[in-house]
Amino acid sequence: MGDNLLDILKQRDDLTEQELLQYLQGDLTPEERRAVEEKLADSEMMSDAEEGLRMADTAKTNFAVNDINRKLAQQLQQQRRKRKQKPVPNQSLVIVATFLILVLIVLAYLVIYKIRSGQ
């Protein structure tokens, strides 16, 4: 029975989401439209999906999509600002600290050398 189920699922020729949306928007050629209508007539599930999409208010859907896109753009803009606002380490402070460390090393060497040569 499992093999039969797999064979049935492989043979299904359902509409893709893209085809269904193009059908609803009227973006198909007459031949493609006829093929989609035949698939809708053959599949109760696809017919229900088409009916549900027709019932959805496209204005509300477009508003929701635009709202989500606007919020996403704002979040991305905030993240970019945060990256730009990261403080860059003060390079002059690093240079001064490195110079002081080198001076201390040289002084330590001279002190040690004088102590050894003085003995």
From TrEMBL:
The chain crosses the membrane at residues 92-112. This is Zf-HC2 domain-containing protein. Keywords: Membrane, Transmembrane, Transmembrane helix. The keyword Transmembrane applies. It comes from the Bacteria.
